[in-house]
Amino acid sequence: MIHDRVKGLRVIRTALSAEAERIAALHRRARSTYYPDGLPDDGIDWTAAWRAAVERPDGHVLCAVEAGVITAIASFRTPEGAPAETVKLFQFHVDPGHWRAGIGTALHTACLEQWRADGKRTAVLDVHIGNRRARAFYARQGWGPDPEHPPADGDHHLCLRYAVSGE
Fold first, then answer.
1. How many domains are contained in the chain?
2. Full residue range of the structural domain in which residue 11 is found
3. What is the CATH number of the domain that holds 135?
4. Confidence at 2, pLDDT banded by 50, 70, 90
5. Given pLDDT bands bounded at 50, 70 and 90, which one contains residue 44?
6. Which helix (H) or strand (E) holds 145?
7. How far is CA 18 from CA 51, 66, 93, 149, in A?
8. CA distances from residue 30 to 9, 11, 74, 148 in whole angstroms, order as listed
9. With contact defined as beta carbons under 8 Å apart, do 161 and 139 qualify?
10. What is the C-alpha to C-alpha distance for residues 4 and 64, in angstroms, rounded to an integer?
11. d(CA 63, CA 142)
12. Of 32, 98, 149, 155, which one has the greatest count of Cβ atoms within 10 A?
């Protein structure tokens, strides 16, 4: 489990189940920025999905909190069927009102610390192809295209990979 990390008023900690509604709202605000025609109706109850993610015994949901407000979230775990040393970053969102304040970088660093503590060697993620801001952020953090999963024709996501162990 991640211990609280304090930098000024920022704390990065494990999310609580009771925060699922606030996390889902942040998720919607962040996702809406890269869908020019509005968020697609995916039929998912995101509050329930986030509550389930927080309560998963095999997963982690971290949140950045500033002055009592959740400003960023990250959800990760080893995906079913993947090697134990692989972790997938399923969700990573910074509230748009807090972009360019170092929150994403701090949360990414906390994820890396947890992955290393858990003995992970490789991290993977899918990023929406139209989310240029996220793609640039991941590139700055050292993520690159996943050679094992090249983009398919018509796919709206790119698969990225990160060498957690630094190798």
1. 1
2. 5-163
3. 3.40.630.30
4. very low
5. confident
6. strand 144-145
7. 8, 17, 18, 36
8. 22, 20, 12, 28
9. no
10. 10
11. 21
12. 98
